[in-house]
TrEMBL record, chain A:
Name of this protein: Large ribosomal subunit protein uL18 C-terminal eukaryotes domain-containing protein
Taxon lineage: Eukaryota, Viridiplantae, Streptophyta, Embryophyta, Tracheophyta
Species this protein is from: Dioscorea zingiberensis
Family affiliation: Belongs to the universal ribosomal protein uL18 family.
Keyword tags: Cytoplasm, Ribonucleoprotein, Ribosomal protein
Subcellular location: Cytoplasm
UniProtKB/TrEMBL annotation, chain B:
SUPFAM superfamilies: Translation proteins SH3-like domain
Statement: the UniProt record of this protein carries the keyword Metal-binding: no
Molecular function via GO: structural constituent of ribosome
A Pfam family recorded for this sequence: Ribosomal_L21e
Presence of the UniProt keyword Ribosomal protein in the record: yes
PANTHER family according to UniProt: 60S RIBOSOMAL PROTEIN L21
Organism of origin: Dioscorea zingiberensis
InterPro entries: Ribosomal_eL21, Ribosomal_eL21_CS, Ribosomal_eL21_sf, Translation_prot_SH3-like_sf
A single GO cellular-component term on record: ribosome
Protein name (record): 60S ribosomal protein L21
UniProt GO BP: translation
Keywords of the record: Ribonucleoprotein, Ribosomal protein
Annotated family: Belongs to the eukaryotic ribosomal protein eL21 family.
Length: 299, 164
């Protein structure tokens, strides 16, 4: 639309079609969402589960979600801020932490559905491509990866979470092309490199490099690691322990929160329809009685 | 040039998307489920080109007879010459809406079943048939005063006062 004198005219606004709310907020990619949610009609009400992974600056969210007309229903969720419970206190948004979060979610879901005995997944985390084999009684739990608005480059943390869920025992259709360690030249996944990333090997080698070359930067960058007393060589051990702890007890802990305090109200509360009507009746009555008095005075 | 009678002829406005409703279609259309025997309305969505029915079926209501992966089979009545044929077409779900034509009957049936069960418990026989609205009951007119109206001779001066 051409602007008139660099102003948006009334006509412009009259014709403007807003995008969907979540698109305006930049949070949902509807093209991808339609394709993820669409269920075959001859499967009627069978839910289609999405394995949703989202990253914030300090946290990782992994959820199993199914869609419904009233709203999406989250079956189970795992957050990186739960990992301190299993022994991981630093580096909560790196590739290894994403792997742990995916693993935690997978074990949680399977435990919820009582499938965790059947589908152990890959207990020893090698970097190789692992897909769940169907067991005798039930078919594996199937979910589809939902990356959201991320750019899916090779080695992205979201694929770390995917690997965690796969090793946990979920059935998620995937290809190894985007795992960390995939070489584009020979079109093969280097399992060694992937394993290094899963156990934080890339972080450990950076720690060693900084320690040698720039000790001050090491102090500032890895200050939390130093505080907890974690050295470059301890990193792999730490993650191994975390994986074992997750497999031992994946169920979430319900945290008790006190009811929030009452705050002082700084603006007027909006009246309901009935209250406004009642106020109007009062005003009219007052007017009528005042007018009645005036008339009597005049008379 | 001759008129042209292609499949989508004369559908410029019929298949156009409504004002300010262009673009992605809301997800409830994909989330709805249809079972065989449901009544559905056909309303073509011009944004989706696959599985579009012919313009004749736009606005018709029919029963579902088949459910496939992305489409629904609908049975619609069409008058051909001197008879009505039941035509079976397959339509993608984007062009289909659940019909409310059977809703009233369904609700009434539930209510009537409940009423009949209650009456049976009390031991009386009731009729749940709908009755048409009868004539209005008689009533007395309250506070009526008689005002006799007689014509008056035409007065030119008075009548011109307003607009002259």
């Amino acid at each position: 639309m051409a602007f008139v004198k660099a102003q948006k005219s009334k006509a412009y606004f009259k014709r403007f079609q807003v995008k969907f709310k979540r698109r305006r907020a930049g949070k949902t990619d509807y093209r991808a969402r339609i394709r993820l949610i669409n269920q075959d009609k001859n499967k009627y009400n069978t839910p289609k589960y999405r394995f949703v992974v989202r990253f914030t600056n300090k946290d990782i969210t992994a959820q199993i979600v199914s869609a419904s007309i009233a709203g999406d229903i989250v079956m189970a969720a795992a957050y990186a801020h739960e990992l301190p419970r299993y022994g991981l206190e630093v580096g909560l948004t790196n590739y290894a932490a994403a792997y742990c979060t995916g693993l935690l979610l997978a074990r949680r879901v399977l435990k919820m559905l009582e499938m965790d005995e059947e589908y152990q997944g890959n207990v020893e985390a090698t970097g190789e491509d692992f897909s769940v084999e169907p067991a005798e009684s039930r078919r594996p739990f199937r979910a589809l990866l939902d990356v959201g608005l991320l750019r899916t480059t090779t080695g992205n943390r979201v694929f770390g979470a995917l690997k965690g869920a796969l090793d946990g025992g979920l059935d998620i259709p995937h290809s190894e092309k985007r795992f960390a360690g995939f070489k584009k030249d020979d079109k093969q996944l280097d399992a060694e490199v992937h394993r290094k990333y899963i156990f934080g090997g890339h972080v450990a080698s950076y720690m060693r490099a900084l320690l040698e070359d720039e000790p001050e930067k090491y102090q500032s960058h890895f200050s939390e690691y130093i505080k907890k007393g974690i050295e470059a060589d301890d990193v792999e051990e730490m993650y191994k322990k975390v994986h074992a702890a997750i497999r031992a007890d994946p169920m979430p802990v319900k945290s008790t929160k006190e009811p929030p305090k009452e705050h002082k109200r700084y603006n007027l509360k909006k009246l309901t329809y009935e209250e406004r009507k009642a106020k109007l009746v009062e005003r009219l009555n007052a007017l009528n009685s005042a007018a009645g008095d005036d008339e009597e005075d005049d008379d | 040039m001759p008129a042209g009678h292609g499949v989508r002829s004369r559908t410029r406005d019929l298949f156009a998307r409504p004002f300010r409703k262009k673009g992605y279609i809301p997800l409830t259309t994909y989330l709805r489920t249809y079972k065989v025997g449901d009544y559905v309305d056909i309303k073509v969505n011009g944004a989706v080109h696959k599985g579009m029915p012919h313009k004749f079926y736009h606005g018709r209501t029919g029963k579902v007879w088949n459910v496939t992966k992305r489409a629904i089979g609908v049975e619609i009545n069409k008058q051909v010459g001197n008879r009505i044929i039941r035509k079976r077409i397959h339509v993608r779900v984007e062009h289909v809406q659940p019909s409310r034509c059977a809703e009233e009957i369904r609700l009434r049936r539930i209510k009537n079943d409940k009423l009949k069960a209650e009456a049976k418990a009390r031991g009386e026989v009731i009729s749940t048939k709908r009755q048409p609205e009868g004539p209005k009951p008689g009533f007395m007119v309250e506070g009526a005063t008689l005002e006799t109206v007689t014509p008056i001779p035409y007065d030119v001066v008075n009548d011109l006062k307003g607009g002259y």
